[in-house]
Amino acid sequence: MCATKNTTKEFIIEEALNHFDEGYACSQSVLLAFADHFKLDKTMAKRISSTFGGGMGRLRETCGAVTGGFMVLGLAFGNEEPKDLDTKLNSYTKVRELNKLVEDIHGTTNCRQLLIKHATETEVQDRKHHKIICRKVVDDATALVYDILKENNEI
Questions:
Q1: Is 63 part of a structural domain of the chain?
Q2: Which regions of 2-121 does DSSP assign to beta strands (E)?
């Protein structure tokens, strides 16, 4: 797509983790890490991805780090024309690939299940889950998205 100052895997992961540590949602952190690469306005990226944290608006459904990854995959592989079914289906394949890779590591991509598996209710109430599991999933999702992009010559 475009060359940026640094597109190494380590740099992109560090960017995502820095955003997360600043207080951005998991979804925002992943998307923001790739924003420069896709010439995506960072303010717009923050807004677009802001409601996907906490498993989509704290619904505790699909993990925000994963949905942030889906957004990046859309930037790389998404269709622009409504009748471009081949491109659309290819992007869906990439989404399913990322979902499976995260499931292979963590057993699920469901926010609620990740929290139940790794944190107590008290830790979640005290927002300690961010350091216990969320930061790790941001790291893993970012790395996996990077690998998918690299494998397809998109980075």
A1: yes
A2: none
Cβ(102)–Cβ(141) below 8 Å: yes
Burial of 23 (0-12, 13-18, 19+ CB in 10 A): exposed
Structural domain includes residue 134: yes
For residues 49 and 31, is the Cβ–Cβ distance under 8 A?
yes
What's the pLDDT score for residue 3? 45
C-alpha 71/C-alpha 64 separation (Å) is: 10
Q: What is the pLDDT of residue 35?
A: 98
Separation between Cα atoms, residue 122 and residue 126, nearest integer Å:
6
Q: Residues in the chain with pLDDT < 70? A: 1-5
Alpha carbon dihedral 40, 46, 50, 54, in 10-degree steps, equals 90
Overall domain count for the chain:
1
pTM: 0.94
Q: For residue 113, tell me if it sits in a domain.
A: yes
Cross-strand bridge partners of residue 62 = 110
Residue 2 forms part of a structural domain: no
Predicted pLDDT at 81: 97
Domain hosting residue 17, numbered range: 9-151
Structure tokens at 56: 């989509």
3-state class of 62 per DSSP? strand
Candidates 129, 125, 127, 104; CA nearest to 115 is 129
